[in-house]
Amino acid sequence: MSLSALELFCGLGGWRFALGDRGRVVAAWDVDAAARDTYEANHGERPSARELATVPAAELAAPDADTWLMSPPCQPFCRMGNRQGLADRRSRAFVRLMELFDAVPPDHLVLENVEGFRGSDAHELLRGKLRRHGMRVRELALCPTRLGVPNRRPRLFVVASRHRLAEAEPPVVEPGPLAEFLDPSPDDSLALEPANFARHLPGLDLVTPADRRSACFIAGYGQRLVGSGSFLRTAAGARRFSPGEVARLLGLPASFRFPPGLPRERQYRLLGNALSIPAARWAVSLLDG
Fold first, then answer.
1. From the candidates 74, 78, 143, 216, which is the catalytic residue?
2. Is 74 a catalytic residue?
3. Whole-number mean pLDDT of the chain?
């Protein structure tokens, strides 16, 4: 099977990396300029800047795609968000896509979101559409730690198709040490200021290179300390993981790069909104039937 996919809410292009040789992305959308710049730097094509909340059916139909790959904004469903679901303005684009589902129905759909998406009104809206179109559906909660990655990023994947889905279960692979993902010479500017480190120490998730786990890195990792991800212990205290290290933990390829001049804080934001490529790749593999 060779898929022809729309990459909706594309960010830095994680779904395109996950798709691999199973097909090609024929069109992508994201409203964030830094995301579009990063996507273009890595994939050689620039996504559309159109707000999906206003996208016409003809624009989705034009590329003649058979697959929707999507990671809608998670803030309406995550534990650190407002949990307003479809009432959150950030869900407008998802609602619009569900409105267009009948007019431009895909043969396949793979959605990734936080675990809080399950049981939400958005989840029920999606399930209703898939049910009415007679699509086969598999839902699975998957964390990359199960696939051998020492980074927690539990997510819900909804995989749907008009054709048979694979029945395989994800393999269980023991994660390796964080040392395998670290920069050989980390930037000194990643170090936490000693007074800041001491003030937030009780709430920090601290790890060492020998550890085989790390906390989920969120979009605010470059701004906040507690609850934003793990920090690496050093002789002087602790440091942030570099954007490159976070990218490796997400499974992005060695060739991945940010456009020149993109501030580190923006890099963290894009990574915090990105996919775990190994988990997304495994979800897409269910379409192999």
1. 74
2. yes
3. 95
Average pLDDT in the 3-7 region? 98
- pLDDT reported for residue 4: 98
Domain, as residue range, for 253? 178-269
Looking at the fold, whether 194 and 164 belong to one and the same domain comes out as no
Residue 254 shares a structural domain with residue 284: no
Say how far apart CA 243 and CA 233 lie, in whole Å. 17
Mind listing the pLDDT tens digit for each residue in 190-238?
Answer: 999 999 999 999 999 999 999 999 999 999 998 999 999 999 999 889 9
Q: Are residues 91 and 13 both part of a single domain?
A: yes
pLDDT in tens, 74-90: 888 886 666 788 888 99
Q: What is the pLDDT of residue 80?
A: 66
Is the same domain home to 16 and 150? yes
**Is 169 in the same domain as 183?**
no
User: CATH number of the domain that 257 lies in?
Assistant: 3.90.120.10
Claim to verify: residue 35 and residue 18 sit in the same structural domain: yes
